[in-house]
């Protein structure tokens, strides 16, 4: 006797959605809710990147003042600031109450530290691009994803600071990638690019076919 457990293939898009989750993460009527968060997180990343790029502080409490240590890039000391940070992280890997795990310390020592100059440019311009992407709402979900990646690396390196807050905010922006950038560049970019990679075939609230492009509309 044969028993059929599933008569039809399971479809992920058929899974029920919580009304609140649909409203927050898929409905453009609440896109304004994500704007302050997006602008703040973008400002934090952009100011951090510009400080490393220029050697001047861009924080609101001390605008355009020389930053300790100067610029990270385009000088004779490129890589020194990151090396100092990495060596500090490696010191946190020892002792009874180590704040840096052994596997991550090995990664820093064997891979990142020898290439400190290259990673200095990656970190500096990565922070600038993430900040610009979030502020202007261009590829918001992708920018938040890269921001989350950098936050996790700072946390793994034993640096707490504002990183847990930024990481939580980044996760929320990633979940709301369909609407978080609606009041920004994504309102134009996503309808142009999603059909090219086949995502227009996936049922998404907040989108409705209009002419030959996808446009923001679904209010259901």
Could you say which overall geometry the principal axes of the C-alpha atoms support?
Answer: globular
How large is the count of helical segments?
A: 8
Give the terminus-to-terminus CA distance: 45 Å
Average of the residue pLDDT scores: 84
Helical content band = 40-55%
One letter per element, helices H and strands E, the order comes to HHEEHHHHHHEE
The oligomerization state is: single chain
Placed side by side, the strands forming the largest sheet appear as 1-2
The number of strands is 4
Radius of gyration: 22 Å
**SS class:** mainly alpha
Low-confidence stretches: 201-205, 207-220
Strand content: 5-15%
Largest sheet: 2 strands, antiparallel
Keywords: Membrane, Transmembrane, Transmembrane helix
Membrane topology: Multi-pass membrane protein
Subcellular location: Membrane
InterPro entries: DoxX
Descriptive report:
InterPro entries: DoxX. With 220 residues, this protein is mainly alpha-helical. The chain has a domain of 132 residues. The chain has a two-stranded antiparallel sheet with strand order 1-2. Helix 2 packs across helix 7 and helix 6 runs antiparallel to helix 7.
């Amino acid at each position: 006797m044969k028993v059929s457990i599933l008569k039809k293939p399971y479809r992920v898009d058929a899974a029920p959605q919580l009304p609140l989750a649909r409203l927050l993460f898929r409905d453009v009527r609440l896109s304004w809710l994500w704007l302050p968060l997006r602008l703040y997180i973008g400002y934090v990343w952009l100011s951090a990147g510009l400080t490393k790029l220029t050697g001047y502080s861009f924080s609101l409490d001390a605008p355009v003042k020389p930053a300790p240590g100067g610029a990270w890039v385009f000088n004779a000391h490129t890589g020194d600031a990151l090396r100092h940070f990495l060596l500090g992280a490696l010191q946190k890997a020892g002792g009874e109450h180590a704040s840096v795990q052994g596997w991550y310390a090995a990664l820093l020592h064997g891979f990142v530290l020898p290439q400190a100059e290259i990673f200095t440019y990656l970190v500096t311009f990565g922070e600038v691009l993430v900040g610009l992407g979030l502020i202007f709402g261009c590829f918001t979900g992708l920018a938040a994803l890269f921001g989350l990646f950098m936050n996790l690396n700072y946390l793994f390196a034993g640096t707490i600071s504002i990183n847990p807050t930024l990481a939580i905010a980044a996760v929320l922006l990633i979940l709301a990638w369909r609407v978080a950038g609606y009041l920004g560049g994504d309102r134009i970019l996503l309808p142009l690019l999603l059909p090219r990679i086949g995502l227009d075939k996936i049922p998404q609230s907040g989108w409705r076919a209009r002419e030959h492009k996808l446009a923001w509309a679904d209010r259901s």
